[in-house]
Write a structure and sequence with these properties.
single chain; Dna Ligase, domain 1; four-stranded parallel β-sheet; three-stranded antiparallel β-sheet; 6 helices
């Protein structure tokens, strides 16, 4: 049995999969809510998902649960760690300091004197893309942070991210996406848009379709992606990324 752990209100990714694509695999996958874990857990594979939405206290409790499962002996496999797997900010900071990322991310509470414009705001623990458009100076940043706080976003959940223009003047942005499932790197999609924040494709011409097909068939960035997942201590998850000058 595969047990997929998530916050109760955010179990829809696998929930939707079970309702549509799962087919015969449905009976071997069960969703468990962090907030309502049973007292006794059976042997099986446990995927600790949605960890970026856990509070510090919840993360520590789930780490204890994971340790108990790890000591249960054979028949248990564990993917991701509630406290050791890196969240978005820690991973972006790591990837800049280690070299792959040319851009930097900052907490809203940090000194921003060295920030390179333009930047945008996004939430550290959510997956809803940018909170703002591109900001051009410190005054715009201050105003954007204030609006975010007034809307109910916590200060620690606000990130300032330097914009990296991967279109290289072509007015065509590419969003690559791939999964890690255990030891496998599986390309998910390559979508195109004239917008820099891509959620859905709005360019579906023959050239784009052919390029996506080649990406899915060749899995060209497998080695680099595995290295990033290893850095993040992520055994199961999805990575979205772009390319600039043939560099991930």
């Amino acid at each position: 049995m595969i047990y997929y752990l998530a916050r109760a209100e955010h179990n829809y990714p696998v929930g939707d999969y079970l309702k549509s694509w799962a087919g015969p695999s449905h009976p071997v996958i069960k969703i468990l809510a962090y907030e309502a874990l049973p007292t006794i857990l059976s042997r099986g594979t446990y995927v600790f998902s949605d960890i970026e939405r856990l509070t510090s206290a919840q993360s520590e409790l789930m780490a204890e649960v994971r340790d108990q499962l790890a000591n249960a002996g054979e028949g248990v496999r564990l993917l991701n760690h509630p406290t050791r797997s890196l969240r978005r900010f820690a991973l972006l900071r790591e990837l800049h300091e280690a070299g792959p990322n040319r851009f930097r991310a900052y907490r809203a509470s940090e000194v921003l004197d060295a920030v390179r414009f333009p930047v945008f705001l996004r939430r550290a623990g959510e997956h809803d893309g940018n909170v703002t458009g591109l900001l051009r100076d410190h005054r715009e940043i201050e105003q954007a942070i204030l609006r975010a706080l007034l809307s109910g976003i916590e200060l620690d959940d606000v990130l300032i991210v330097e914009f990296c223009d991967t279109s290289q003047g072509s007015k065509r942005f590419r969003k690559y996406s791939a999964f890690r499932v255990g030891d496998r790197i599986i390309p998910r999609h390559l979508i195109f848009s004239e917008k820099w924040m891509l959620k859905l494709p709005d360019i579906l011409d023959p050239a784009a379709i052919a390029e996506e097909r080649a990406y899915l068939e060749s899995n060209p960035h497998e080695r680099e992606l595995r290295d990033i997942f290893d850095r993040a201590h992520i055994d199961y998850g999805r990575i979205d990324y772009g390319m600039l000058d043939d560099r991930l």
